[in-house]
Amino acid sequence: MADDNSSAQKTADLKQYRRCPGEKHDITVPICKGRQRRSYPKCMVCLHRTIADTSAQPGKSKEEVDIFKSYDIRGIYPNELNEEKAQKIGFATIDFLKQVRGSVKNIVVGRDMRVSSPSLADALIKGITNAGANVIDIGLVSTEVTYFSVGYYKYDGSIMVTASHNPAEYNGFKICREQAVPISLDTGLSKIAHLAKQTHIASRKCGNIVKKDVLQDYKNHILNFVQDIKPLHVVVDAGNGMAGKTIPLVFEGLPCKLTMLYPELDGTFPNHQPDPLVVENIKELQLTVQKAGADLGVAFDGDADRCVFVDEKGQVLSNDLITALIAKKFLSMEPKATIIYDLRSSRIVREEIAAAGGIPYRERVGHSHIKATMRERNGVFGGELSGHYYFRDNYYADSGFIALIEVLNILSERDDKFSNILAPLRRYYSTGEINFEVADKDEKIKKLSERFANGRVDYLDGITVEYDDWWFNVRKSNTQPLLRLNLEAKTKEIMESNMKEVIRTIKSKS
Asked: What is the pLDDT of residue 439?
C-alpha cells in the first residue's frame, strides 16, 4: 500500500505545474525541484523553494559566492576581493564573453576614486590583456561613463571598478556586454565565477592597453537631453564621489548656478557615507538648499549612477515621484510610449503614466531586469525606487546626470517651485522601505501569503498583495538575511493600521 501511495504521489506531482517568477511558461514540479538543486537564480525569490539554500553553486566556494552578488561583484578589500582575484576575474570575463560572442576585441575599463581602485584596475587589466583582449582604459570616471563608452564606440563590453554606495573598505566590479547590456548572476556572473576559480593565468596573444579620454564625447551626449534650461540654482552633494569630477564638466556652459558639497575625490569618504538613500547622509544638502535659497538639491552615490533629489524647501523627494514626473515629460514628446517602473513604486507612477497616455509596465527590482524589459518593450524611460533612472536614448542604461537634466528641463518649462510641481503627486501615504532581520525568509513570505490571501497576490518579486485602498510588497534582500517591506495606502490611518498587521505577521514566531 505504501508503494501505491508513493506512486500516486509521484503521478500527482507530475500533473502539477509551477511558474518561475517573471517567466511566461509553466514548468512541472520535477523540473522545479531540479532547478532548486542547481540553485537556479529565480529560486531565491520563489515560494516553491523547498531545498535549503547552501549559498553555493557548483564549483564555487562560499567565499566566491559571497563576492558574486545578484548584479555585480563586491567585497571587502583585500580579505574578500584582492588583486589576484581581480586578475582572474578579468581573464574569466574574456573567456565567458568569447563563449557567448565568439570573439572579443575591446573592453572598456573605468574606475572610481576608492583607495584600492587603482591596484585592482591594474590587476583586472592584466587579466583581460592576458586573455587576448584589448583594454580601453578610460581612467577615473562615473559608472555611467562606462555604459556610454560601450554603446557610443561600439566596444565589446566594460568593467567598472567600484563598490557603488558601499563603505570605503569595499570594492567591486560592474560588468557589461556589448551595447551596455549588464551581466548579472543569472546572465553570466555565476559562469564567470566558475571560470575564475578554474583560471590559471597564462598569457595568450596579449592584448593592448589604450588610454582614452571619453569625457568630451560623454558631455556632448548628456547635453543632447538639454532643452531650454533657465538659470536655476542647483546644490549638488558629490559626497567625495565621482560626481565631484563629472558634474562640473556637465554644467560647464549651462546657465545654472552650481553649488558643490564635497567635490574632492576621496575614497575614504571623510564627510559621510556615499549612500544618498540614508537620510543622515544628505542632511547638509537639505540645510544648504534652504540657506542658499536654491531651487533644488541633488545627492549622488559613490560612483554617481544614482541620485536623490530635495526640493527648494529641503524636503527629500521620493524617487518614485521623480519617476512619475519624468515619465510625463517623455510621454508629452512620445505619446503611447512604454515606461518601466519597479514594483515597489507608488501607485501614482502607474496612474500618471496611464493618465498621460503611456503604457505602464511593472518589473522586478534590479537594473538587469529593468534594462532587459526596456529593450524588450522599447521602453523610452524607466525608474527605480533606489534612484536609478534609465533612458532608451542612453543605450537603455541608467544615468543620474540625465535624470538631473530632465528635472531641470521640467522646472524650466513649468516655471514653478519644485514643491508645487510635485504637490499633486502626493496622493498616497507610504511607509518607505522597512527592513527586518529574518532567519527563514521563505517561511515568512508563505505566512504573509496565507494571512493576506483575500487580496490580489502575485510573486513577481517576493510577494505583493493589493487591495483597493492599500497594498504592500515584501521581498528578500539578495545579500543579507533581511526582508524588505514597502506599504502604501490612500490615507495615513489605513497605512498605519495595515502596517502594524503586516509587521505583526512578519515578527510572529508561530
From this structure: 86
